[in-house]
Amino acid sequence: MFFHHYALEVRNVSATKEFYQKILGFAEEDGISYQGKVIDFLLLDGFRMEILENKQACAKNDRTHLCFEVRNLDQKIELMKNLGHLPSEGPYQLENGWKTVFYIGPDEETIEFLQNRLSI
């Protein structure tokens, strides 16, 4: 069995696609229409994300988040700042050597960037 994709239900597919493509570097892989709904698939380094429009999607889901490992967290924070995005939480230095920071995405989803201690 293999992991295929992570699905994210959002209120505005266009805004979400723009954020994940322009800010995080995802590429559009495919788009389909299913039962009258637009479903887009984005791809980043083998990670596939399905974006599905749902006008009734929760404003914020406190139980889950997306985490992307980065080589240099300080550089990612600076890049995000230059693009107009400030952390919602952190950055933190964890006991195990990891560094992490959290942002809020375009549909109020939580996005984490993490630098593994081995990435230094």
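The above is record 1. Record 2 follows with the same two-line structure.
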Amino acid sequence: MIKNSIKIGNLELRNEALFLAPMEDVTDHSFRLLCKEYGADFLFTEFISAEGLIRKVNKTINKMSLFESERPVGIQLYGSKIDSMVEAAKIAEERNPNIIDLNFGCPVRKIANKGGGAGMLKDIPKMIEMTKAVVAALDTPVTVKTRLGWDDNSKIIVDLAERLQDTGIKALTVHGRTRAQMYSGKADWTLIGKVKNNPRMHIPVIGNGDVDSGETARKMFDRYGIDAIMIGRASIGNPYIFKEIRHFLDTGDKLPELSIHDQVENLKKLVERSIEWNGLPGGILHVRRHMALNFKSLPDIRPLRIKMLRTFDKDELWRIFDEIENKYDN
């Protein structure tokens, strides 16, 4: 047994674990592996449409591809129909994930306005019924990710967390914003802390929102007593953040910033794996979001960044990477 560990069903993780958040067009297999190599304790697939899964849409099914090298790993599902979510969860369970997570937090309009993701925050009885049904249908531990509430007038998370726990879920992730906030403003960790410190709560509580450094992570763990932190947008283009945060949590010291050489090597590795998985040109297209967030602060980088983000040719991309490294890696 791991000393000072947290347990999610039969899964045991180190205390103060770091989770990679599920993100559309971001957390594919190639990126998940990089995050794992840099110290992420738990990984999630991209979030997956229940309807797409039960209709056997190839793109949706491919998002569930799991590999032993990335475990422990979870599959996250979203949808607005209870029967569909149960059926999709059973299909996902066949891939033997360590966790199946229910997404009640995605704020994107095309999902939330149809009642999925954070849209479930407008129908709490249905959310509870759906969660109960999925928990009852599976042997795999079920977890939930949600937000503080729909808007500033309905920050219901403390009561909602109790009700979700009573359905039999094994952990709860709380993003410290309302759906109305989308990703703007600051995450409110005080309410995440109230969920964790509610005497009735006994499942692990994972905090999410605005953690982008070891110092911030340390403050959230110490101030609010949460069990784990989930890293989302701060990891895009920067899987190294898991190593930075873990080092600071363990030692109190900051690591030096990643060199241009190492950033280039990370991108090459990411592109190689993405091409291997998605082919060409899809493999390059799929990692452009990561490439876009690298090097942008370098002086006079704009012409090279434009070339980098426009090419579909691997050899040309490698030449651009090498040019960036030769010019800026002092």
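Residues 260-278 form the longest helix (19 residues).
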